[in-house]
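Quick look at the format.
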Amino acid sequence: LTVAGASWTANGGTFTIDSANTVTLSNAGTITLGGSSIGGTQFGNLTIADTTTVSAPNANLNVSGTWNNQGTFTPNSGTITFNGASQNIDPNAQPFNNVDFAGTGTKTLQGALDVNGSLTINSTLDVGANQAINVAGTWNNSGNFTPGGGTVTFDGTNQTITSAGQPFFNLALSNSGTKTLGDALDANGAIIIDNS
């Protein structure tokens, strides 16, 4: 399914497509996702074409397949929930607001991950080829985190880090404010503290 119009609006109904199928958002401009029931949308594989800017709703969107961003993603104040089995995620250096890694299997990063809000792990998150992760909000891990040789940077203010005994590799604490540990912290590599 290819969407080439300027908007995707869900009012009173929901859209569901399984992880074996792909929705491509392709427009030489902006596609705005919205409507009163957009939060019930379930994508399978989701591709954002290279000429396209997607403006996300201030709601939750579910993705059960691959996230392949070749364009621009504007997260606004919404949440993306990766709720499938094994999934590959390529953010293309575009930030998310909140991200929830749910479902089963392993979510593998194909590029650096930037989260302006909270990051929640309820399944397994793998950094792939040592991809970097930046988080400005809460880190809440109740699943599994495979850090490889990557760096996780907490670059917000007044953040809480709950790691559930899962180690980081390199860990950087930056920006102002207080980073509060929700449980024991384990870093297999370096810990860098920089409040500039």
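Next, a different chain entirely:
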Amino acid sequence: FTDQNKGWAVGDHNLLFHTTDGGLHWNIEQLGQYPNDLRFIFFLNENYGWIAGHNEIFNTSNGGQDWISIPGISVRKLFFVSENVGWNIGSSGLISKTTDGGVTWEEQLNTGFDNFYSIKFIDEQHGWVIGSFGRIFYTNNSGESWRSLEINTERWLYDIEILSNGNAYGVGEMGTMLKSSDYGRHWELFCEERVN
């Protein structure tokens, strides 16, 4: 949602959903010329948004009135800090950065085996990526380098949230929950389902 009324959702078969009444009613449209599963949608503000798909990215600069296709790029999620600067994550431990609004991407990290599921930045310098086997990567230099953080779990982690007061939270499979009180630099495990 970009405000209390306007919201977006995406799904398989190129489907884009849009509401202007807080989710009471949804308009449906199809994006793109080729079969595509749309995985994630991100809006920087009421005008600038991006959609991550299996084989292409779409972006808008006018609040979703028009969507421009950027083909040949397969990403799981993306995050932008400005109209031009953003990052995407994919399979095989891939993190890439754009400085032109998503038209071109430069690879920053490729571990070759991780699956990344969520990415967050609090400004252009500081960002986190979370994924399989309890892996969290952190950058404090706009992604020029990424550091793997020590986490006391090997469970797959699916989402991360960084709050303005410095607290951060991560969640994953089988009830796994992590907490940080220093903007995600150090993490403690405070909930995990045990398997006997």
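Residues 63 and 103 are 18 Å apart (CA to CA).

See the schema section for token definitions.
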